[in-house]
Amino acid sequence: MEKTVFITFEGPEGAGKTTVLKKIEERLTERGVDVVATREPGGSVIAEKIRHIILDKNHTEMDPRTEALLYAAARSQHFAETVEPALKEGKVVLCDRFIDSSLTYQGVGRNLGIDAVKAINEFAIGDRMPDVTVLFDLEPEVGLARINANAGREVNRLDKEDLAFHQSVHEAYLHLAERFPERIQVIDASKSLEEVVESAWQCIAPLV
Ligand code: TYD
Asked: Which ranges carry the Thymidylate kinase-like domain (predicted)?
């Protein structure tokens, strides 16, 4: 494949990924860059339906393996239908969460093991990794407090996990960043929105 610009935004709940992604999308569009903003789980009609099943608060019986497989299934469809065609057309793709969410939430948070979760994701998307991942680093306590303060935000099944779960996910993200330093760029998400947008911009500007 020719040179692509596939950028993912990762991090714990309440880190501001979605808001910052929107600002970066606007900035790129203003500069005349052809950009596609998408999200996981979801980003295509079929994948959004799978999202519904995964995040439903009432699905408390969901087995961790089922959860991991559903995220991978949604990713496979989203990648084939939305991400890959856009990259082939030379568009810049910004994706709110991707494979690192599965490695951290399912691999570590759910104790399935990073290697097992990596294996099912390789089946889903081959060896296609993002070109750059912006990791929003934030203490889980701060992120969860932000979510709870935002009355308009829908609370999903994963948000309802306890603090220890979110702490293990946070640590797992930092380990991934140590393991893949060329791909994963860590930014401090505890700062003001303007500063976080600027840090994210610095990570992606060299690529676009
Ligand atoms: P969402 O409302 O999009 O959360 P956020 O705004 O924090 O991105 O819900 C996505 C949830 O799914 C979030 O709790 C993280 C979780 N998730 C996984 O556990 N594994 C995955 O592979 C992905 C993509 C998300």
From this structure: 9-199
Cα(50) to centroid of ligand 1, in Å? 12
| Ligand 1 centroid – CA 192 distance (Å) | 23
The separation between CA 31 and the C-alpha centre of its own chain, rounded to angstroms, equals: 24
- Taking each helix axis from N to C end, the angle separating 163-179 and 140-149, rounded to the nearest 10 degrees, works out to 130
Six-digit token pair at 14?
Answer: 């309440």
- HSE (side-chain half, CA atoms, 13 Å) at 80: 12
Q: Domain with 14 in it: what CATH number? A: 3.40.50.300
Starting at the edge strand found earlier in the chain, the sheet holding 132-137 runs: 35-39, 92-96, 5-10, 132-137, 184-188
Tens of pLDDT, residue by residue, the chain (208 residues) = 568 999 999 999 889 999 999 999 999 999 999 999 999 999 999 999 999 999 999 999 999 999 999 999 999 999 999 999 999 999 999 999 999 999 999 999 999 999 999 999 999 999 999 999 999 999 999 999 988 888 777 778 888 888 999 999 999 999 999 999 999 999 999 999 999 999 999 999 999 9
Q: Per DSSP, what are the bridge partners of residue 44? A: none
**Domains held by the chain: number:** 1
Give the residue whose CA is nearest to atom 2 of ligand 1: 156
- Residue ranges around ligand 1 (CB below 6 Å): 13, 17-18, 40-41, 55, 71, 96-97, 101-102, 105-106, 156, 158-159
